[in-house]
Design goal:
- Keywords: Carboxypeptidase, Glycoprotein, Hydrolase, Protease, Signal.
- By secondary structure, the chain is α/β, with parallel strands linked by helices.
- 32% of the residues lie in helices and 20% in strands.
- The protein folds into 3 domains: 288 residues, Zn peptidases (Aminopeptidase); 80 residues, Sandwich (Immunoglobulin-like), CATH 2.60.40; 28 residues.
- The radius of gyration is 21 Å and the shape is globular.
- The mean pLDDT is 92.
Amino acid sequence: DVVGILCLVLAAAALDFQYHHAEELEAYLKGVHAAYPYLTHLHSIGRSVEGRDLWVLVLGRFPNHHKIGIPEFKYVANMHGDETVGREILLHLIDFLVTSYRRDPVITRLLNNTRIHIMPTMNPDGFEATKVPDCYYTRGRYNKNGEDLNRNFPDAFENNNASIQPETQAVMNWIKNETFVLSANLHGGALVASYTFDNGNSVTGSLKGYSRSPDDDVFIHLAKTYSFNHASMYKGTGCDNRQTFPEGITNGYSWYQLEGGMQDYNYVWGQCFEITLELSCCKYPPADQLEKFWRDNKVALIEYIKQVHLGVKGQVTDKNGNPIPNAIVEAKGRPHVCPYRTNEHGEYFLLLLPGTYVINATVPGFKSMLTTVEIPDNTGNFSALKHDFSFSEVSIRSMAASCLKTPLYQELERASAAVKPTLHILALMTVILVIFK
């Protein structure tokens, strides 16, 4: 009815700096969607243990479905229910994006060229269970089953025996169904941008107290992009005298080892670069501080989204111009333990810093195609460098392929301990391992 829609639109118009509980959060998101139906798509990706919807608002010129060439980006907040700042600033980010569209040229171009998914809360039950806000720790950190959702994902380094929770499963399905390229998850309790890996072994250099991914340079750039655009994170002062983070960033493993984390899962199995943003020393600060948190993070949130346009993207097609799904496309010298593959549209997206790279496209059973690309910084143009591959001798759709959710790095560690191979052989073994599994 008209009155109902009007109420929703008014709810969308009046976003205040308060904490929004489940019903208010849902009403706000529905109001935004009612007010901006052409720019937003609202859906629930699943339900929490207590049956609350896990809402995601998608924003962009084509909000309802993936469009070839337009990268997918996501923000997830409040996976620890008592870490609340991210939950609220994502609502203000939504408000800022929809009200700036067609008014602010930068935001207009960002939304025209990016599909942005925003999940204000991954753990609504934990948030509702936190009756007394506290700067430090409450049981609301966990979901209703008492599980820490950021220890609940399959782990690339060791067997994670935690039983997968409905909230975790919903996010895993979501990652599988979208071609996410870049992501961040928002936490509280510190002030730092933390990047992959959170776990590690000798293959990733954990013996030296740092767990290095093949894309370590990109991750450092991503973390610094957030930190240096934040009001104070870049100063690296931390929250107490014991902890300082130079330039406001840290390798996750260097800070503390973590098994079953969401950012490692995104990177290894989701082909999505994710960092963890710790946004407040106090986990659940008083509501009167929320406006300052929004001001401190606003520029950083936008600048970080722009980084989804780093690097190179394109399509892999056969001789008839049909897309080839599951072709492996990676930059030489930075193989992923679960090789990065094209999606159902034959698309690939590789986040790479400006420079010269050799890109290797492989359709199993056929000769690889190698091409050298010179990658500029295209984030200001809102489009990564475009480079397509056409396999003239291929006229078949490649077979489905996926990595098992086993600790893939365990196999590499055993192999490297046995023969101490070079990185080149290591990369080859990774690909063979995945194909034969």
